[in-house]
Amino acid sequence: MRVLRRFIGAVDGVNYYTGRVVMYGIFVLMGILLWSSISKTFFLPSLWTLEMAQFVMVGYYILGGPYSIQLGSNVRMDLLYGEWSLRKKAWVDLFTVLFLIFYLGVLLWGALASTAYSLGFWGSNPLEFFGGLVTGSQEVGRLERSPTAWRPVMWPIKVVMIVGIFLMLLQCLSELFKDVLRLRGEAI
C-alpha cells in the first residue's frame, strides 16, 4: 500500500503542477488571436496565427486533461452517480476507469506511430524507431509538414500529444489506485 500511495502522490504532484502552469496557456491563445485580429485589420494577415492557435489549444486541452481528472471537474453523467455512496462510486469508477485506461493505451500507441511517421519512419513498429533514435542506429527521415501555407513541421505538437496522453494514463492509474484504497477502507 505504501507503493500505491507514493505512486499516487508522485503522479498527482506532477499533474497538479503541470495543470497549474498549462492553465495560463489560455492567455497565450488570447494573445495569438488578438494579434491575428489586429494583423488582419491593419496589416497583411499573418499566415501562422490560425494554426498556432490550434497548436496552443491542443497543448492546453491535452496537458490540462489530467489536472481536470485529478480535480474531478471532468464531465460526468450525474443522473444516478451523485446519490450513490462513496463505496458504490468507487466500485463503478474502478470498473469504468479500466475502459479509459484501455482507450488511452490505444491512443498512446497511435500517437507514437503518428509521431514516428512525422519524423520520417515508414515502418510498423514505432517503438523500434524511437529505440533506434536513442541508440543512434536510426536517423530521422523527411519531416512531415502541415499542408497549409505556413507549413510548420508536425512532430512538436505530436510530442505534446504523447506527453499529454501519457500523463492522462498515469492519472487514470492514480485514480484506479485511489479507488482500490477507498474500497479497502483506507484514507487517501
From TrEMBL:
Keywords: Cell inner membrane, Cell membrane, Membrane, Transmembrane, Transmembrane helix, Transport. Coiled coil: none annotated. It holds the Pfam family DctQ. Signal peptide: none annotated. GO terms for molecular function: transmembrane transporter activity. InterPro entries: DctQ, TRAP_DctQ. It is a multi-pass membrane protein. The complex comprises the extracytoplasmic solute receptor protein and the two transmembrane proteins. Part of the tripartite ATP-independent periplasmic (TRAP) transport system. Belongs to the TRAP transporter small permease family. This is TRAP transporter small permease protein.
